[in-house]
Design goal:
Number of helices: 27
Number of strands: 29
Structural class: alpha/beta
Largest sheet: 4 strands, antiparallel
Strand content: 15-25%
Strand order of the largest sheet: 6-5-14-16
Helix content: 40-55%
Shape: flat
Distance between the termini: 61 Å
């Protein structure tokens, strides 16, 4: 029994009711089913650093739309949810929280800190999954995963051990990116480059006996404390005689050699470069070739260490300031230039990073990258839009070894064990207490793995790997990954690498890239700008459907989108429009209405709306298959709002309000059929309201979510109906526009004549004109008859509409109105004539003012002529 629909739509009640029912009914659950085609998507796991933001909303609205579409197409669909431990970001948040309590993590030790971290995960993990449910995401919650749960941890340890055994993971002293604030190493992908205004300082290095000197330029003068050479090109004639000699580091006093290396560019600046192997990746390579010592002069928090002499203990920027002052005072600071350059910063805290030499764990990437490059090149993995494959290739073809160790406590601890007794190191899948070589106690490596190491295994670790589960066999490889272009390097590339290395096949076949969400002014949303938007607040005010729809319709693949209140308000208004339309229909259709349409009894409007629906079904289906979700959603919107609500339902009222039961029954059947299928087309984008309204329809199945996706019905495509209906609609629009221009009140009826060779079309559609144009008389004829000069002619393709002026206005009132306008025009003419006949005015007034008055006189005379002619025509009508 259908319940009576409330007058207004309450999204809060509807959304809570249906999501609870969907989940309790098990509609989201997926099971391996060899009799069905499968479709699987893994959720980009939100970090447990806090609550969801708008980026998460868009990240998951798009794949949920795809999964709902596939579910309705009969696929066994898995939409696998989960969260990410986010080592650096989460540890920073917990440390900040502890600092407010006056506690440092070193005060409580690793175990107590991890206890806090797990409590944090439990709190924010629950909050995030609750928020994901509020957005309507149809995930299989029984399969929810966490990147540090037991299964994912087993996968991580096994892959680490496998790569280590193959020699693809190694530990060594290499130049790495270091964040002095987070106090951890960073991979190249975790470094963001920002354009910064700085200076280029030119510093002179003198020979011990002052007989020669070399000037170099640097943006980081504090690193000269770690200089171990000056390099020049071996073929540079300016320095050929002093290669192998030495210079003194000014303000430091240490003697360093002048070496030759082809890294130097003779044409750039002085052609000489200071070499600091401990703090620059290029210098590190030069130092290795020239066998130079490596000096690291900074502490992990960005201060100068004991190797910095009198500068020891200073912050790096404090040291820079003091060092430059000292160089200037001794005359070795040659000049200072303004300089703008890209500076590497930490992707999490945005602190300027330092390059330092450190013993870290690395993945050798060149060999691993080859299959991943080939997969995209040969089309096994496709980027949508395709242009992002170029971004991918540029990164992968120039990839360097990946630093995977992080100096943190929260994360997957590196499974390497050190024996101080015999000096052996062992990498093990199982936790070791004693050394397998000598039996003495071992200690585990203190570092944890880069978050992206575990995230890179997400498509298969979540399905049971390293066990050979039925889910892994059935749902892997997954089908589509939806993510933003900002993590192609971080995440997408590594998943493809691990997919081929571990599973021997691609992790997914399509990577659907969306842009970033920006504010209405095009700025990136951030806390510092105060322009961030809480998706939960938007849901409370406007509803999840409105938020989802506003995100989908504004989002073309790969392009940034702007979010504004206007957009979500428009989406909320659309929800109300849909609700009111369906409510009206359900209150007025035949009580026994069903979708059994009698094609031989259809009106033009019936044939037209059925044809338009079936065209839209084909187009929307093609759009979704091509990942053009924004276009698909917009087409459904346009169909529902403009064609169904504004046109067909208005025209259908003629039958619904008539005493002709057969006509009412036919129209009811068409309305139920069209609305049923329109709601299905809308469901992937707006799941809550479509379920609510679907349940009100006759013959509704258990849930719209599991109902069949609409298919084009060739029997309901009436080719001529679109052109005929467009002609009728054009005429109706023209008449309605004329009424608006003439300010004809809605209650006033008018008459009209249609002249056209297609008299049958207009005879059959007379009721449409009566209802939508306010006509009380419509004559249709195939040839032009007598007409008056005052008649208004509206020309259309194939004929014209003639409307008597008297039908639009009360002629007596119009004459009275014209008399007033004529009097006003005569007064203006008289005033202008007096001004122009005034000798004093003509002598004193500026020429521009005089010309203005002449123009006013001319305008008044022309208007007066038109008004008088108009009155003559009206009097002829009376």
């Amino acid at each position: 029994m259908k319940q009576e629909m409330p007058k207004t739509y309450d999204h809060a009640i509807v959304e809570k009711k249906w999501y609870k029912w969907w989940e309790e009914s098990g509609f989201f659950k997926a099971r391996p089913n060899p009799d069905k085609q499968r479709y699987s998507i893994v959720m980009p796991p939100p970090n447990i650093t806090g609550v969801l933001h708008m980026g998460h909303a868009i990240d998951n609205t798009l794949p949920d739309a795809i999964i709902r579409y596939k579910r309705m197409n009969g696929f066994e669909t898995l939409w696998l949810p989960g969260t990410d431990h986010a080592s650096i970001a989460t540890e920073v948040r917990i440390v900040e929280q502890m600092a407010k309590e006056g506690i440092k993590k070193q005060d409580i030790g690793r175990e107590a800190f991890l206890k806090r971290a797990w409590a944090w995960r439990n709190e924010y993990g629950r909050t995030i999954t609750k928020q994901l449910r509020m957005l309507g995401f149809s995930c299989d919650w029984e399969r929810e995963r966490f990147t540090m749960d037991e299964g994912c941890n087993r996968a991580v340890i096994k892959v680490f051990k496998s790569l280590y055994d193959k020699g693809l993971i190694y530990r060594g002293d290499r130049i790495i990116n270091w964040c002095p604030r987070c106090k951890t190493a960073l991979s190249d992908a975790e470094v963001e480059y920002q354009e910064q205004n700085s200076h280029l300082w030119h510093i002179r290095y003198d020979a011990p006996d002052k007989s020669y000197s070399i000037t170099v330029a640097t943006t980081r003068p504090e690193t000269m404390l770690g200089d171990t050479a000056i390099a020049v090109h071996p073929d540079d004639p300016r320095y050929r005689d002093i290669i192998g000699k030495t210079v003194i580091i000014p303000a430091v006093g240490r003697e360093i050699p002048i070496v030759a290396d082809e890294y130097c560019e003779m044409e750039f600046g002085t052609g000489a470069v200071k070499i600091t192997p401990g703090h620059d990746p290029n210098d590190f390579e030069v130092g290795a070739r020239c066998k130079l010592p490596i000096l690291c002069v900074m502490t992990e928090d960005g201060h100068i260490n004991e190797l910095g002499g009198k500068y020891a203990g200073m912050d790096r920027y404090e040291c820079r300031k003091q060092l430059l002052s000292d160089l200037e005072s001794i005359g070795n600071l040659v000049k200072t230039e303004d300089y703008t350059h890209n500076v590497g910063t930490c992707y999490r805290c945005h602190t300027t990073i330092e390059s330092i030499v450190s013993k870290q764990w690395f993945v050798s990437m060149k060999e691993l990258a080859r299959p991943a490059i080939d997969a995209v090149r040969n089309g096994e993995v496709k980027f949508v839009p395709e242009r992002f494959s170029k971004t991918y290739f540029n990164w992968m073809e120039n990839i360097r070894d990946w630093c995977i160790s992080r100096q943190l406590w929260w994360g997957h601890r590196i499974p390497a064990y050190y024996c101080d007794a015999c000096g052996e190191m062992t990498v093990s899948e199982t936790h070791l207490q004693t050394c397998p070589h000598c039996g003495k106690p071992v200690r585990q490596d203190e570092d944890v793995l880069d978050t992206w190491f575990s995230s890179g295994m997400w498509p298969f670790s979540t399905l049971g790997y390293p066990d050979s589960t039925e889910e892994l066999k059935y749902f892997y490889p997954t089908n589509t990954l939806v993510t933003g272009y900002d993590i192609i390097f971080f995440w997408v590339a590594r998943m493809i690498v691990f997919g081929y290395e571990v599973m021997g096949e691609r992790p997914f076949d399509h990577v659907y890239i969306h842009g970033l969400l920006r504010d209405a002014q095009g700025r990136k949303m951030s806390k510092s700008l105060g322009n961030g938007i809480d998706p939960m607040e938007e849901i409370y005010e406007y509803g999840a459907d409105a938020l989802r729809f506003s995100l989908v319709t504004g989002n073309s693949a790969g392009n940034d989108m702007r979010y504004s209140t206007d957009k979500i308000e428009a989406a909320r208004n659309f929800c109300n429009k849909i609700y009111n339309a369906v409510r009206f229909v359900m209150m007025n259709i035949d009580a026994d209405a069903c979708c059994n349409i009698e094609a031989d009894r259809l009106t033009l409007a019936d044939s037209w709306i059925l044809t338009r629906l079936n065209r839209i079904i084909g187009e929307v289906t093609s759009n979704i298959e091509a990942f053009e979700l924004n276009i698909a959603a917009q087409k459904v919107y346009d169909f529902f709002w403009s064609e169904l609500c504004d046109w067909y339902i208005e025209l259908a009222k003629t039958s619904l309000y008539s005493q002709n039961e057969q006509a009412k029954r036919n129209t009811s059947a068409v309305l139920v059929y069209v609305i049923t299928n329109a709601l299905k087309l809308m469901h992937p984008f707006m799941p809550f309201i479509t379920e609510e309204l679907y349940q009100q329809l006759p013959n509704a199945e258990r849930t719209i979510m599991l109902s069949a996706w609409p298919k084009q019905d060739e029997n309901l495509l009436f080719e001529s109906s679109e052109q005929d209906m467009e002609t009728v609609m054009d005429m109706i629009r023209s008449i309605r526009n004329l009424r608006a221009e003439r300010s004809v009140p809605p209650s006033q009826k008018i008459s009209a004549t249609i002249v056209s060779k297609n008299t049958g079309l207009f005879e059959n559609t007379k009721p449409y004109f009566s209802r939508l144009c306010g006509l009380d008389g419509l004559e249709v004829r195939d040839g032009m008859g007598a007409s008056k000069p005052s008649d208004i002619h509206l020309v259309f393709n194939g004929g014209e509409v003639i409307i008597p002026l008297a039908s639009l206005v009360d002629l007596a009132e119009e004459c009275a109105r014209l008399d007033k306008e004529i009097a006003a025009a005569e007064f203006e003419r008289s005033r202008a004539e007096k001004m122009l006949n005034n000798a004093g005015f003509m002598a004193k007034a500026p020429q521009a003012v005089v010309e203005g008055e002449r123009k006013k006189l001319q305008n008044a005379q022309e208007l007066l002529e038109k008004l008088k002619q108009r009155k003559v025509e009206l009097q002829a009508e009376m």
